[in-house]
Amino acid sequence: MKSRASGNHASALREGAAEDGLVGRVHYRDPQAAWQLADYLLRLLEPHPGAWEQPAVVCIGTDRSTGDALGPLVGSQLARLAPQLRVYGTLDEPVHATNLAETLVRLARASPTFVLAIDACLGRAENVGSLTVRSGPLRPGTGVRKSLPAVGHAHIVGVVNVGGFMEYLVLQNTRLGIVWQMAQVIAAGVVHAAKQASELLHMRSRAFS
């Protein structure tokens, strides 16, 4: 039997492993971090006004590793705070390395207008706690040397700990308090962005009706 910390479930990124596409970066301790994330997301989607009509959020990770629990923590909060969003990956039903391909099949059948992916990331010590929004798909698993399918039209990654050595052990020994606070900020940012985008769509539909 595999332990609860089994590497089969790990899906964290390595900092800088994703395509460039940088939209913005903020530290989770910044008092305006959630609003800044929302602004980055809205800026990213400004040329595509219909993107938030049927959005989906894929929160990747597992509760079997503290550092890799960022995605499921965000997903559980979004499922509670933003029921209008189609959320994949919660503490109860995580999306990780072993079921990611199956989840993407379900996602394709749902035909969302926009897919936002969220994952944990390992990086340099000075960047721990930073939250980054990038355009383009997320490529999970690079932080633990796994090759997994790309996910999403854009993504948010949070640097939960220092990478470069014994990544599985680092993820398993990451402080839950930091990961929880980062998850709260990300969830709040996505909720703010979804609310503002919905209001903008409503205003545009009224203007053209």
From TrEMBL:
Keyword terms:
Hydrolase, Protease
| Single GO molecular function | peptidase activity
Extract the coiled-coil ranges from the record: none
Pfam families with a match to the protein in the record: DUF1256
**Biological processes, Gene Ontology terms:** proteolysis
- Identify the SUPFAM superfamilies for this entry: HybD-like
* NCBIfam families named among the record's database cross-references: spore_YyaC
Protein name per UniProt: Spore protease YyaC
Designated gene of the protein: yyaC
